[in-house]
Amino acid sequence: MNIRDIKPETLADLNMDPLWLPFTANRQFKQQPRLLVSAKDMFYTAIDGRQILDGIAGLWAVNGGHCRAPIVEAIKRQAENVDYVTGFQLHHPAAFNAAERLVRITPPGMGHAFFVNSGSEAVDTALKIALAYHRARGEGTRTRFIGRERGYHGVGFGGISVGGMVANRRVFAGGMLPGVDHMRHTHLAENAYSRGQPEHGAHLADDLETLVALHGAENIAAVIVEPVAGSTGVLVPPKGYLQRLREITLKHGILLIFDEVITGFGRTGKAFAAQTFGVTPDMITCAKALTNAAVPMGGVIVKNEIYDAFMTGPANMIEFYHGYTYSGHPLAAAAAIATLDLFAEEKLFERGEAMSSYLADAAHSLKGLPHVIDVRNIGMVCGIELESLPGKPTARAFEAFLRCYEKGILIRTTGDTIALSPPLIIEKSHIDRIFETIREVLKTLP
Ligand SMILES: Cc1ncc(COP(=O)(O)O)c(C=O)c1O
Q1: Integer Cα distance of 50 and 260 in angstroms
Q2: 293 CB within 6 A, ligand 1
Q3: CA–CA separation, 22 and 19 (whole Å)
Q4: How far is CA 327 from CA 94, 274, 360, in A?
Q5: Which of 235, 147, 240 is nearest to 187 (CA)?
Q6: Cα of 147 from ligand 1 centre, angstroms
Q7: Environment class of residue 189 by beta-carbon count within 10 Å: exposed (0-12), middle (13-18) or buried (19+)?
Q8: CB of 230 closer than 6 A to ligand 1?
Q9: Does residue 151's CB lie within 6 angstroms of at least one atom of ligand 1?
Q10: 446 residues of the chain, pLDDT tens digit each
Q11: Phi, psi values for residue 410, rounded to 5°
Q12: Cα gap 44→183, rounded to integer Å
């Protein structure tokens, strides 16, 4: 049966028991399921036929809007043409074309991409590249990683080790990577209601100097940060913070990795946040909007020096013992090519940048409404932080999510922050509707 054929009255017949949903309260969900059966541009259609306006681009991912014809066509064509080719000692042209298009929009000097299937894989791959790179250059003592509190880098063991979200870590503490430290996060009370980059907090990058003094630079492989931390509530980097991190990493020969899984592909106003903030890292991890989320795909983009360091030794030797069965999968590569072409043809990054002040105005207009304690924004992303219900963190924001959903608006909440990251094709009228709904909902929340 086609999912489009499932009518509301058949929902009761759907056997939900076998599926274990990710990052979900499974029992609650199965009591009150939220199922979406089709999508087009800015809207999902729910199983009961309701139109749901997508305020979060699926999950910071569908930057070009849903089910765009050129992407759908490219995937169909590729599926008919070649379903699968391994990337191990063999490959197919679309993967090369996808990499070529990807590095066209990265900062200068970042000319090589390694394909994976998700953001988590991109992060673990980048960490492994860092270790192998230092080893290849005779600096094999550089094995430590530095992440940041409130960081999210996916759910692989590497990603949770450098990540800083306790709920994602505490149960797995025994399986973490050894030799990982965390810098402090950059979320400071004095920056509340900053529009764009906050004023205070550049000094927090000096935590890296402290860790260098503790361990010795010769033992540190890489620092990984999200330029804008998304999953812990839209934390925009303070002015000068990323620049300082870059200076310190360069001074000590430590690689700087920007995890751009959500900030990539126009979210902050330029192709990558590296360009928005004018700081070029050594590696960029990406995923999500790389294919407009139509087929899973991620990538690690590296500086030319990193790639070149691997391309030494006998030419018949495998340079990097790493890769996935689906690295550069034909369907993903076709989707990436069509997506990157669509972004360019429709000038979507510029469109997002032009629309960002309208989104910022709408977000900051919520100041003073019940429960709102902070509003943060950059590019086409904003966070509206609510005061937690006493003793029940996350409950108030989750209730806002449910009530918005009932009213036909899809928002995302992380902790007690509402995080919005709409497709870059969004119109002002959509933004108005999203914020009218949030406004109404805020007035009714417990
Ligand atoms: C910054 C960052 N890194 C990594 C990931 C993990 O990506 P995935 O869920 O595709 O593994 C995410 C997911 O939201 C993310 O926001």
Answers
A1: 33
A2: no
A3: 10
A4: 12, 24, 37
A5: 235
A6: 15
A7: exposed
A8: yes
A9: no
A10: 455 555 545 687 899 999 999 999 999 999 999 999 999 999 999 999 999 999 999 999 999 999 999 999 999 999 999 999 999 999 999 999 999 999 999 999 999 999 999 999 999 999 999 999 999 999 999 999 999 999 999 999 999 999 999 999 999 988 899 999 999 999 999 999 999 999 999 999 999 999 999 999 999 999 999 999 999 999 999 999 999 999 999 999 999 999 999 999 999 999 999 999 999 999 999 999 999 999 999 999 999 999 999 999 999 999 999 999 999 999 999 999 999 999 999 999 999 999 999 999 999 999 999 999 999 999 999 999 999 999 999 999 999 999 999 999 999 999 999 999 999 999 999 999 999 999 999 999 99
A11: -95, 115
A12: 39
- The span from the CA of 206 to the CA of 241, in Å, is 9
Distance 261 CA to ligand 1 centre (A): 6
Tokens 């209730």 map to which residue? 399
pTM passes above 0.90: yes
Q: Cα–Cα distance between 337 and 221 in angstroms, integer? A: 33
Tokens of 113: 């991409």
Helix (H, G, I), strand (E, B) or coil at 302: strand
Establish whether residue 154 lines the binding site of ligand 1, counting it when its CB lies within 6 angstroms of any ligand atom.
Answer: yes
| CA distance readout (Å), 201 to 188, 197, 238 | 7, 10, 5
Residue minimizing CA distance to atom 12 of ligand 1: 154
Closest CA to 288 of 278, 280, 297, 279: 297
- C-alpha 48/C-alpha 316 separation (Å) is 58
Distance CA 166, CA 384 (A): 21
R_g over Cα of the chain: 22
3-class SS at 426? coil
Structure tokens at 75: 């995937």
Counting beta carbons within 10 angstroms of the beta carbon of residue 209, is it exposed (0 to 12), middle (13 to 18) or buried (19 or more)?
middle
Count Cα neighbours of 345 within 13 Å in the Cβ-side half-sphere: 10
